[in-house]
Amino acid sequence: METTEAILKRRSVRSFKDKPISADVVKKLLESARLAPTGGNRQPWKFIAVRNPKMIRNIKMFSEGLGGVPTLIIGVCCEDMNTVTVMDIAMASENIMIQCVDLGLGSCAIASFNQEAVKKLLEVPAEVHLPLLLSIGYPEGEPRIRPKKELKQVAYEEKYGGELKI
Amino acid sequence: METTEAILKRRSVRSFKDKPISADVVKKLLESARLAPTGGNRQPWKFIAVRNPKMIRNIKMFSEGLGGVPTLIIGVCCEDMNTVTVMDIAMASENIMIQCVDLGLGSCAIASFNQEAVKKLLEVPAEVHLPLLLSIGYPEGEPRIRPKKELKQVAYEEKYGGELKI
Q1: How distant, in Å, are the alpha carbons of A115, B12, B156 from that of B61?
Q2: Is the dihedral of CA B23, B74, B34, A102 positive or negative?
Q3: How far apart are CA B148 and CA B8, in angstroms?
Q4: Does B34 sit within 8 Å of A154, measured CB to CB?
Q5: Measuring CA to CA, how many Å separate B160 from each of A130, B26, B50?
Q6: How far, in Å, CA of A46 to CA of B164, rounded?
Q7: Which of A152, B85, B90, B105 is most buried (CB neighbours < 10 A)?
Q8: CB contact under 8 A, A47 and B2
């Protein structure tokens, strides 16, 4: 799929088919994350790919933000919660979510979950943070389209508040 | 360009040609950002597209992290610095940087700059944050390739530390 199409077509998907995701596909997603931008080349991230249905159900019990039953969850861990680190893992996560569109997968980024409980399930060490889960699967039906602000409301030219004339 | 290629080819570019970026291209980049994922559909972002060469030179004076002379800087503003907000603007910024690759542009995300000074230049209100600048232009030469960790070092299966067997 063309890059522009993948970026513009991405929607948060919360309803998934019960269809397994192959190892090859998981590897492509992780590879997309590995090569994301990272401040000072620190790469302060770890990604945990979970496909075991029982573990996915367990994670879901502690994740109020998780809609539907995904067939893959990627837990996104980081060393600290500095702003640059948080931006790094978010950019890597967006790479995964754009790559998902290209592979016919839907995804949703989830920050509303009981981090301590999920860390325990995934055996994440106390000093490591787990601020984000990506729920991934083959979409069931069409995702709900939510209204977006117009470009002029979110983009300016030359200065803050400068009218967009392009 | 294929999505996978754009994601994997992206490098931080710090050397740019003195070639203007058209309004159409700027609009495509901003549109990519507008449709990025955002927690609770908040869209807590504003993007300032700066193409005026004099303003770009002024911003550069206060931005130690900015290499080369870009022909476009996008200032990424947000309402607060909550973790979810920071992840939102980072995902939107990654959309811009992936779209850049597709359009033959290079980009670099910059967090090392004097935020107060650049806010003043761009007339950003005191209560608005400007944690990130994206420097963008047509690449001059090949960007430096920095070594990346192997996939097994950053990705696990089923639990933290679980060996990647895929």
Answers
A1: 41, 20, 42
A2: positive
A3: 12
A4: yes
A5: 11, 41, 43
A6: 12
A7: B90
A8: no
